[in-house]
Task: structure prediction
Amino acid sequence: MMEAPYLCVLYVATAGQQGPGLGADEEEIVLLVYILIDMGQNKVVGLQQCLVKPRVADVNENILSEQVLTESALTEDLIKNGVPLETAIQQFEHYARQTFHIGPSTHSLRFVTDGQLPLRQCLHPETCSKNLDLPGYYSYFHDLRKEFRAFYSMPEEPQCIRDMVTYLGMSPDTESEFYVKEIKDMVNIVQRLLADGHKFDNPETVNLRLEPGICSKNEEVDNSCVVRARGLPWQSSDQDIAKFFRGLNVAKGGVALCLSPQGRRNGEALVRFINQEHRDMALKRHKHHIGNRYIEVYKASGEDFINVAGGSNNEAHAFLSRGGQVIVRMRGLPYDCTAKQVLDFFEAGENSCQVMDGEKGVLFVKKPDGRATGDAFVLFNQEEDAGKALSKHRELIGSRYIELFRSTTAEVQQVLNRSMDPKTYEPQMPLIAQVPQVPLLPQHIITSGTRKDCIRLRGLPYEAQVEHILDFLGEHAKNIVFQGVHMVYNAQGQPSGEAFIQMDLEQSAFLSAQQKHHRYMIFGKKQRYIEVFQCSGEDMNLVLTGGIPAGAVSPAKAAALLSPGMLPPHPPPPIGSAVATPLPPPTPALSWEPAHALVQAQVAVAQQVQAHALAQQNLAIRQSQAQQEGLWFMNQLAVAQQHQAAMAAALVAATSSSNPAAKQNWNELNGSATTGIVSSGQPTNPTVSVSLAKPTSNVVNAQSQLVPPPTNPTGTSAYGPLIPHAAPFPGTTHPSQVAGAPPGLYLLNMPPRLPLGSAPLLPSQASAGLGATSNFHHKGPPPQLPAGASFSPGTAHPPPPHGILSPIIQSPMTAAAIMGLKRSWEHAFPAEMQPSGAVKRQWQPPHSTTTTFHPSAGLPTVAYQTQFYPAL
Result:
């Protein structure tokens, strides 16, 4: 190639990394320096420095990295006052054309750069992503390091400008008019090479377009020249992938789109470069973007490329050898479609285009038995025909709409290879396969407990590491316990975007969640707001082990804690649900390809319906159980009220009458036929009787009226533990449970207590038999002691003090039992009686002796529930 009259030393700086990492972080260019050297005179004839304003300058306050601020004279204010990249390129183009009459020809100017990175990794990729056109001379340049090594026969290539300056024995520039001191050193090195007789006549080229090519099964491909790109948009063509790697030279036909077993693109591609140097630079574009999608780039082997792009089909080889620039894939053709119909399809309408070589430019894909598959490939001669052809997407041939896609030579080989393989048409494995849930962390390092001393981070970038989380938490990171950051991964081992962090105190977790919730994490060019929640060790254990520990959390809380890809196990049945028919357990976590999102949504809806039905069934069971419990309590209380009312009525009859039958009735109700009102004889030891009253022949046993309380399958009470009532007097204890009593119940017969006042409440004939030596008997009414008397030391249970009007019983009784104990208004409130003309009618007690009430004698009293009497 002929030597250009001018050399241009080009220096490029980005807002991020410099040196070996230039361009690897996808940061925008902030500085372009052009220095023109006349090769004939070997002197500098022109200078152009352009400060470039990145597009993110209006969004981010801090643009430049610490490395740029340290190694150059650039500042934030200088960059924010710069010009856009397209303006900077146009300014130099105008300057070169007006001053030196340098046109856009590729032979009028040659760039010299410090290595490959300034043009291949910075300028060309950024202009391609911003859809900017570069003049032709940007496609050719000289690598100063390679030129220096070749001319001076160095054993190794120099790694930086300082190495070349040291080799030549030159002193580095310390005072320079440039923003970066290295620029002056580059100019001095170029002039030294020209002075020593070096000829810059073998420039490197940058391929802007992917050239078509054919790869056979027998071809050998170097393992050090292939990469695998993952995460591509499914509609990407080979040209789109080549644009992603703009600046690097891809081999002819070097892009092979990978297909799924169903013949559809799976978002992966194998790319073959011309040498290892370009492959290594391609690996530095890992996590760079196509639109909003980041692309993963990994090493691959030559065998991988041959398996995808290599072909041995003679028909495909003949079709691709025609050299068409554009290949379009047609899908959904009628099985009886002909090549003539395909030609008419593209020639009809406004955007008509000609198929290359007529019917020979159409290749139908067929099965091994010769039947059509509905697919075809069509060649076009010019790149301009691609847009016209693809504009006919979803137009009709007959009654069928046709899908059109930009295709590649490798895809033609792949599709034809598969179409001729009989295994392709065998039944495929189901798309949805079960993935067993396994613990994601060793159990011994997972915390537990209900203390909310943990925080949960959700929405993290998938590439985030522990150090990024520590930076995000800032000053709260000092409260993290040792090895307390746990990243959460899904069943496939991929990051789930979540993390759990153990803090030293609940207060630390609360403050972290309060101050960092919905704050942004800056990761490269991306800004992600992070959700931060305070949680407990049980919540953390739930997600990290991939399941729900029994009884640890409620089903609603457990469902909220599950990460994407996890489904809760079948919840335990509620209490009393033995008659319920359990629903089938939910389907475990599933994994499928992204293309089948509809199947995923249908499965999720089915699981929600199952969970809703189970919740409704459990609710109905709990309501029925609650109704049974309410009926049982009401029956028990009613029976107890009847028995206690009968005891009160019998007590009144026994104390107000000398009728032996009344006293016998009282004794039967009070639990002993041999113990009654003490009239004479020796004192009886006070005890408490805890038993079922003995039924008599003239009393109906009402024990059959009791409804047993609902119980669990284990035999315990369904509404919690029952406690026995406290003994009515100190020093007394309860005997063992009576046989036949409901579980968890103590049946208690308590001695009735009468209210005490200034006047005796018992009739004279009843109180006459109570002497000063009589002890207070627990089976009868409490005695009245004469004035000045007191209980003997042997008496265990003194009566309540005077002046306290205690109720006879806690439950309602009949009016006849209460009226005999009622005091008059004047007796109760003597101070309120004022002399007036009105006279209050005195109330006359009824004659309770005329009525004898015989309630059921075999009724137990009701036990007291813990929830109704918490003090017990």
